[in-house]
Amino acid sequence: MRRLGTFLKQTIRAVACVVMLASPLPAAAETVEVAPGVQVTKRTYIAPANEQPFFGFAAKSAEQKAGDEKFVSAIIGATGSREKAFEETTKRAWMAIQGGKVREAALRFNQAFLVSPEQSSVYHGFAVIAQARFNDLDAADELFRIALKQPNPVKALKADYGRLLLIAKRPRDAQAVLDLAVKEAPDFGDAWTNLAWARFQNGDAAAACAAAEEAAKKRPSNNSSSDLTAVRSVAQCK
Predict the structure, then answer these.
(1) What backbone phi and psi angles, to 5 degrees, belong to 16?
(2) Distances (CA, A) of 47 to 21, 56, 91, 121, 131
(3) Strand bridging mode 31-35 / 38-41
(4) Is 98 helix (H, G, I), strand (E, B) or coil?
(5) Stated pTM of the model
């Protein structure tokens, strides 16, 4: 695994490292097929292309395409299968997110996109990047909705989407998503924390406290703990 870590460090900035900066997308948006049957709105940002979702949709040269293929072959060889290569790459991407290293996370999710572009975690990860780095709530919403339809979603998907809807000031939509999140993953504390906020914002402090109590039992993540403390305070939970 140390060898793989070294390999990824060496390639993280080399893989399709298009460094052209792009301007924000004009109003007339176009869609692009990024995987078989998957269309996304083309959005670009002022950042290196390999730190943007889908490499900023930059046109790649033959040399860059060959570099992508070389990377995919090498990481599959290093891990033993495409599935394991994707798992390893996304694991490192989520670790970067948890550590607040959003730029590194974007690089990792772009690597995952090269390995298996149809997987839910690609769109989930890019949704988080769109919101956390570029404050593009519309892009994040679109990508979360795509992630919900793609194979092998992680249990945090609906919890994270619900939180995005709360940030977008759509608490009713958020509660509908988070009700499903806690039903499908009742042991996931972060989903209960986000549900507590949704219930509070929808005017039900008692139900918010009930969800907060469940969250406390499930040991929410470090990132969610402060949210839990805050909602218990504003809802005046006992």
Answers:
(1) 45, 45
(2) 6, 9, 23, 22, 14
(3) antiparallel
(4) helix
(5) 0.88
| 192's tokens | 């209960």
Neighbouring CB atoms inside 10 A of 70's CB total 13
**Region of residue 19 (left: phi > 0; alpha: psi -120 to 50; beta: else):** alpha
pLDDT by 10s per residue, the chain, length 238: 545 555 555 555 444 443 344 445 444 579 999 999 999 999 999 999 999 999 999 999 999 999 999 999 999 999 999 999 999 999 999 999 999 999 999 999 999 999 999 999 999 999 999 999 999 999 999 999 999 999 999 999 999 999 999 999 999 999 999 999 999 999 999 999 999 999 999 999 999 999 999 999 998 888 889 999 999 999 999 8
Query: Which DSSP category does 16 fall into?
Result: T
Distance CA 221, CA 66 (A): 40
Nearest 10 degrees: Cα torsion 96, 99, 100, 106: 0
